[in-house]
Amino acid sequence: MDAAHGMGAPGPVVHGADALEVSPLSDRSGIRARGAISSVTRPCWEAALAELTRQHAEVSYLELADVGFVDVAGVTALAIMAMKLPGRRFVVEHPPPQLPRVLQMFWPGMREIVVVPR
Fold first, then answer.
1. How far apart are the two ends of the chain, measured CA to CA in Å?
2. Which residues span the domain enclosing 101?
């Protein structure tokens, strides 16, 4: 089973519980994700995060209202990206409940990631 595509075109490639669709936000610098961030979809998630790092925005937004699940490795990928880009801020909007818990557990006080809860 392949993960969905990166940020270039809308629509998932894979259907089912382990699908991930990622698209750019139209009104600000960032991405919108839909589906699940797991071992199956991690390559898609990491590619989307890598593309986001190529943008030169001081603040980038990750809209995760339609993400039902993110595993620890998916949160780790986000945290590593944030640590590699000092001076930038990532605003994670409406993530699944495990994302802020994992951030608090492993990276308490990380100021590069701001979580706006559901």
1. 30
2. 20-116
Please list, in sequence order, all residues whose beta carbon lies within 8 angstroms of the beta carbon of residue 27, skipping any fewer than 6 positions away.
none
Nearest-angstrom CA–CA distance, 100 and 6: 24
Q: 């989307």: which residue's tokens? A: 48
Whole-model pTM: value is 0.84
Q: Which of 64, 67, 66 is nearest to 92 (CA)?
A: 64
Inside any domain, residue 6: no
What string of pLDDT tens digits covers the 118 residues of the chain? 334 444 444 444 445 667 999 999 999 999 999 999 999 999 999 999 999 988 878 999 999 999 999 999 999 999 999 999 888 999 999 999 999 999 999 999 999 999 998 7
